[in-house]
Amino acid sequence: MGQAIRGSTRAPGVLALALVAACPMGVAAASGTGATDPPGGAGQAGAVTQAVREDPVVMVTPADGSTGVPTDTTVLVGVRNGTLKKVAVRAVKGARGTLTGVLSADRTQWRSRGTAAPGTVYEVTAVVADEAGGTGDFSSSFTTVRAEQGFAVQSLLPHKDYTGLTVGVGMPIMITFDHDISDRLSVERNLVLRTSKPVHGAWHWFDDRTVHFRPKRFWPAGTRVRLEARLSGVRGGKGLYGRRNHVLDFRIGRSQITKGSVHTHQLTVRRDGETVRRIPMSAGQGGVWKYHTTSGIHLAMSREPVTIMISPGIAPGQPGYYRKTVYNTVRISNSGEYVHSAPWSVGSQGRANVSHGCVNISPANARWFIDNTLIGDPIIITGSPRRLEPTNGWGHWQEDWRQWTRWSALKGFTTEPLGRSGGQ
Questions:
Q1: Residue ranges of the L,D-TPase catalytic domain (predicted)?
Q2: Tens digit of each residue's pLDDT (9 = 90 or more) over 368-420
Q3: N or C terminus of the chain: which is more exposed, having fewer CB within 10 Å?
Q4: CA distance 381 to 265
């Protein structure tokens, strides 16, 4: 019988494993007793010979004893002249946890999934079967690169408290980190999106800490969405690694798109392709640039029962100053634009533009509009010479697809499928 493998219990006839880690593949020679003379003397006919059988050869990456291994390195375990019965990669010093993986159909290769933790010693163990059916144990270890500092998600939208978890078809996913990210590709690769309906979209970096996702076209109504931010151990830059993972589940509601024209002074609200309300409006009076309502694809950013509106850039006592309490407002930009109740301009609504840039509607229509709007609903205004800037509020849809993907590391992808139980 061959020499026992470290920590193994082998059935008779199992031969020693040969370990090959990050070097050319080798084959362990079989060991045996050789031929013996039969009774009656040497050289007689019928001499017995013993066949040579090759031992399993195990190959592992990273090599045994490796240090400073990048956290996104794929752990590979392969075997020749045998099969893998079981493979485990477990943290034994530093962080806790295991790396999951996938075994090939012929059970000769195993590949890890996910990202390792920085500054951690991992032990790779495998149970290997030879061609005769006996088994042996194998182990090796490696150490990942040490993190100098960590990064985390500082804010994430949609959020149950700020937007609700059922949102409009224009809603972006918005992530802000607490440190500057220089390895954008590594981070994007680990922001996994799963949806109940296939969606093509892309992440877009507004700066080193802010990345947003939007589809190429509006979300399909009724889509369930799950964001899996698998950031634990992910490299964000030199010496910078993610601290933890995040999961966000939300839904896209019915498709409601509101369109309005500063020329016709009308808002038309369409839900799932059907017109559900026509609303007379009064847009910005113009004259001064800031008094033009911006044209473009706005999104409903907030619903506010009461908003205090103050004249921008005009102090109390100066001509044009105002401070007004306004009810039932839906914010559509960061430059002070709302769709809101304006009882003082009802006579002009549907006829003329008299506001300071907001979209004025009647109190009854404002009540209906705030009650029937989801955060992320598109509100599209046309006819104004002043264009909504992409960075003014949630002006994400003001960039065409080429402009949007210019600031994406992955340049676009189709979401992964979401199971029935996901996003509930």
A1: 256-382
A2: 999 999 999 999 999 999 999 999 999 999 999 999 999 999 999 999 999 75
A3: C
A4: 10
Whether the pLDDT of residue 5 is over 80: the answer is no
pLDDT in tens, 96-145: 899 999 999 999 999 999 999 999 999 999 999 998 889 999 999 999 99
Who contacts 288 (Cβ-Cβ below 8 Å, separation ≥6)? Answer: none
18-31+54-144 and 149-254+405-417 have identical folds:
yes
Tally: H helices and E strands in the chain: 3, 32
- Residue 41 reports pLDDT greater than 90: no
Domain range 149-254+405-417, CATH architecture: Sandwich (2.60)
Q: Give the pairing type, strands 246-252 and 224-229.
A: antiparallel
Q: Which residue is associated with the tokens 């990050």?
A: 22
Name the one residue in this structure whose structure tokens are 């966000």.
248
Contact 145/117 with Cβ under 8 angstroms? no
pLDDT in tens, 323-355: 999 999 999 999 999 999 999 999 999 999 999
Tokens matching residue 166: 């059922």
Distance CA 170, CA 151 (A): 29
Contact 326, 306 (CB under 8 A): yes
At residue 188, the 3 state secondary structure works out as: helix
| DSSP 8-state code for residue 402 | H
pTM: 0.83
Distance CA 219, CA 229 (A): 20
Output the six-digit token pair for 304.
């506010």
The dihedral formed by the CA atoms of 153, 158, 163 and 165, expressed in degrees to the nearest 10:
-130
pLDDT per position as a tens digit, 218-265: 999 999 999 999 999 999 999 999 999 999 999 999 999 999 999 999
CATH, domain 18-31+54-144, list 2.60.40.3780, 3.40.50.300, 1.10.560.10, 3.40.50.150: 2.60.40.3780
